[in-house]
What does this fold into?
Amino acid sequence: MQTRVQRFSLLLPVIVLVGVLAWGVASIVGLSLQDRAALLAGFFQRADYVDALLRTHALSIAATLLCIALGYPLACYIHQYQGNRNRLIVLVITPWLVSIVVRSFGWVVVLGPRGLLNSLLIAVGATDAPLRMMFNSTGIVVGLVHLFLPFMVLSVLAVLSQIDRAMGEAAASLGAGRLAAFMRVTLPLSMPGILSGAMLVYLSCMGSVVTPLLLGGLSEKMLGTQIYVEMFTAFDFPKSSSMAVLLVASSLAVVVPLLWYERRVSRRQSIAKV
Amino acid sequence: MRQSKPLLAAFSWLVLAFLALPIVVVVIASFSPTGNMRVPLEPFSLSGYRAFLSDGKWWEAIAVSAALGACGALISTIVATLAALVNARYDYPGKALLEAGILAPLVFPHAALALALYGVALQIDLLGTVWGVFLAHLIITLPFAYRPISAAMHKFDRSMEEAAMSLGAAGPYVFRRVTVPVLRPGIVTALLFSFIISFDEATVTMFLKGPEFNTLPVLIFAEVQEGSALAVPAISTVLIALTFLFIWLVERTVGLQVFVDKD
It folds into this structure.
């Protein structure tokens, strides 16, 4: 019915867009590898850069673990909620859809030196001088967790809704207690949701720029902040490119094993279903 | 059958409160004379809204963001629909690679994505122009347009088209009267999502836009960084209201299930 040429012409616009992206990635990789990778080598001679790289990973991992700790129970609760489940889902989605700039600003108002939390603590007499909750790692992690927690909740929720309710009941009828049924049935079956949520949260944290700038300031730099500074104060595009390449390469080192594990878990489960 | 779990419920509502906190705080701060929220509460004031309404730069930024979002959503959705039409029906070499490329912006760290697109804009001389930002927004919103349409395509039963054809309907007529209506929920979702993602985008835009114009999120960011925040809570509250409008639209048109469905 349709010839190959027609089919290709329908795909042409999308090929152009994906091509632009691929070209962009190729050009920053190219830039950072020119001069025999001197830029990449130079990166590791600067203690503050290495610091930023390590901090970026540490804070992203911390934020991801917190997202699991907060998001998984919430997803379970929403899943088994008896009332109108959509109302709870709206409460999760609304923050996600509000611009990251607005949400980070909200945290500035809450955590700032003269912000809500400090004024509250002073009013009740818990502290005399304002506590430092912003322009440090605490502020960044709070902001990042808030930013990406909805990803985790939605990802786990999607998997939970696919688990057959009868599984839990079968476990119960075979004499498993609630804890055992959860540990042996629900948790393993929802593992793919946790893993894919974790990868999404981690990668999003790694690449964040706005939140670390607003809540971390310029003293506690993440790699995203450092890239921003190199671009807009030093106008050094090649150096920024090398940082971006390092950012992606080092996050792949974390994500690829997770991806492999997720594939393995899902495959085993799909075999079990058949 | 299910027992109530008070501990889980309490914990979950605390997490929901955490999610709502900065948003509620911004709304309350917008009605204070200083654009802040602290205890004891400051008197009610509309000076934040006055500052925002009286300053033309906010309106310009809103116009740019709305235009980018609307045009971007339209083009992204058309491009995604064409791609999904082919991908759902035919196999060809490189298909998996192309789909990975379409979805890549979802997982690619944004700081690196911004630099990659900066590199392209630099080489084709679009740096600092609205067109450069527009191209970037197309790439960023494409996965949000592609996923719902592709999901709708996979549920689509081709025999419906064949039935229409065998009853004598011509190709374009079938496309208009059968294919498009079946895909409508996917297309509506795609349009709504690409709009809001583009309208809210800050990171990549910040790197590409140059000094000549502002989008709304980038302007808010700049104002917060400079510390001149009186109008910021007010405009943020408008954005939050817009988000509620968006969710209401999604619920009315395609249902909230789109957020949970896994494709």
